Amino acid sequence: MNIEKFQESMYKLIVETSTKLPKDVRRAIKAAKEQENAGTRSAMSLATITNNIKMADDNVSPICQDTGLPTFKIKVPVDANQLEMKKAIYEAIALATKDGKLRPNSVDSLTGENSGDNLGGGTPVIKFEQWEKDYIDARLILKGGGCENKNIQYSLPCELEGLGRAGRDLDGIRKCIMHSVYQAQGQGCSAGFIGVGIGGDRSSGYDLAKEQLFRSNDDVNPNEDLRKLEEYVMANANKLGIGTMGFGGETTLLGCKVGVMNRIPASFFVSVAYNCWAFRRLGVNVNPETGEIQDWFYQEGENVDFAEQEKKQAEVEIAASVEATGSSSNQEAITLTAPITEEQIRQLKVGDVVKITGRMYTGRDAIHKYLMDNDAPVDLNGQVIYHCGPVMLKDGEGNWHVKAAGPTTSIREEPYQGDIMKKFGIRAVIGKGGMGPKTLAALKDHGGVYLNAIGGAAQYYAECVKSVDGVDLMNFGIPEAMWHLQVEGFTAVVTMDSHGNSLHEDVEKSSLEKLAQFKEPVFK
Ligand code: SF4
Question: Which are the contacts of 235, defined by CB distance < 8 A and separation ≥ 6?
Fold first, then answer.
């Protein structure tokens, strides 16, 4: 094989996967957008998402800043040299990282040290399989941490919140799947796609679940029972009312694919792999002699060209959302500029749409842990902290540029957030998925707000960053460092306010009530 060409082909596959959603996923998002009632927060989120997809297309930049754990599934003719191919994939991954198409995401599990090039023990994941065909089938999925953390595995029989007993039969499996959608809430950047694996052991069950994510969203399950199950889930999961980003709304789930394998009699696992709307998986047919791409997978059927999307669409939807929710007396998004006073914060309430202009500081896991025991490198009084691990690139003159900058999952900072806000006088934190009771109490006590940005809208938010004014704590690595960002028109929704209200709590409660309607057996 021409291994240089093969490396080039793998580089193309990585860049295309990171920057362009496949057609089947685009169609699902478009259909969801058409279903959502105009003027709601969910409609605003979907407008931002479609705008973001278009920007990623145009800029050839990552759709979401979390480019996940690259996972390749490769089928090869019997005489293909897998060792050479593996080396070529490593080179392609390192180059794509250097070019800002992948975020450096591989860290030492014990020390937290970032390898900087996405290579290291266990990264990337490459699974080879031999087959009798005369071409290479190479598929790649980039699944981020926010949705990976919402995967769930059930061991039947079990008791499920809201649904009661799930037995070792098709109906028990149905209950597990409905529960998996409920437990994810908006935290995996809904609306999402799920792959379900029935049977196997704990590891092969998850493998089977992830395998389902490689199926086209439009295919029909050849197993009659599973076809009915998939259709049932698609018809009913959206009745939970969780909505995009967990803001409440009509669309919670965009796809459900179920696979089955044998198990041993003592075990009965149902494993669910949750994938966010930024469902980045593509595949190529490669010539084993020339190493060149002969065809792309998942690209058949109608193309949804988001280039037609008006650039102003998100702004229009935001304005409509503010009006519809009655969250602002002047029917315009509220502008916040740091330093923010306690009085300004106390005026905000759940549902308000805000636009931030001025300075914000990024901070995620390493920064929060650090700030608990150390002084801040900058004065954070009245400031805004953004839970974000951006993709950054340095130009030839040593200046940093933001390539992708969406929010990361906030709940990981729950042990620290309230204490840090009080210790440094921080008034607002921005992230996604909401936070827990400890932070909610601190917001009330101290006078702070939690703002939910649109998860995965990394290009949309990167464009809001007008300059990178500095960086501290670079020893934590690029995604974990504290970046000083100057932003303009950075839009987010107040989902936890200083009066003890949390939209996340409300949606979780109402979706649990709705889940109970699926308690009765459906599949006998
Ligand atoms: S869209 Fe959300 S869950 Fe998906 S990779 Fe991005 S931040 Fe993670």
Answer: none
Rounded to 5 degrees, φ, ψ at 431 are -165, -150
The encoded tokens of residue 175 equal 């209950």
Does the C-beta of 144 come closer than 6 Å to ligand 1? yes
Tell me, rounded to whole angstroms, the distance of Cα 315 from its chain centroid.
22
Listed in sequence order, the residues at least 6 apart from 257 whose beta carbon sits closer than 8 Å to its beta carbon are 193, 194, 195, 196, 212, 213, 215, 217, 219, 221, 230
Task: Please state whether the peptide bond connecting residue 390 to the residue before it is cis, i.e. omega within 30 degrees of 0.
Answer: no
How many residues does this entry show for the chain?
A: 524
pTM exceeds 0.85 for this model: yes
Contact by Cβ (8 Å): 217, 255: yes
> b/e for 11-20, b at 16 or more Cβ within 10 A?
bbbbbbbbbb
117: Cβ below 6 Å to ligand 1? Answer: no
For ligand 1, atom 7: residue with the closest CA: 456
Tokens 């669309």, residue?
251
Ligand 1 atom nearest 278 alpha carbon: 1
Directed axis angle between helix 365-373 and helix 414-424, to 10°? 50
pLDDT band at 249 (very low <50, low <70, confident <90, very high): confident
Q: What is the pLDDT of residues 331-346, one digit of tens each?
A: 467 999 999 999 999 9
Mention every residue, 6+ apart, whose C-beta is less than 8 A from residue 197. Answer: 204, 205, 206, 207, 208, 209, 210, 211, 212, 259, 260, 261, 269, 270, 271, 272, 273
Q: Angle of helix 170-184 relative to helix 224-236, nearest 10 degrees? A: 30
482-496 vs 465-472, strand pairing mode: antiparallel
Do the strands 449-452 and 428-431 form a parallel or antiparallel pair, or are they unpaired? parallel
Contact 435, 428 (CB under 8 A): no
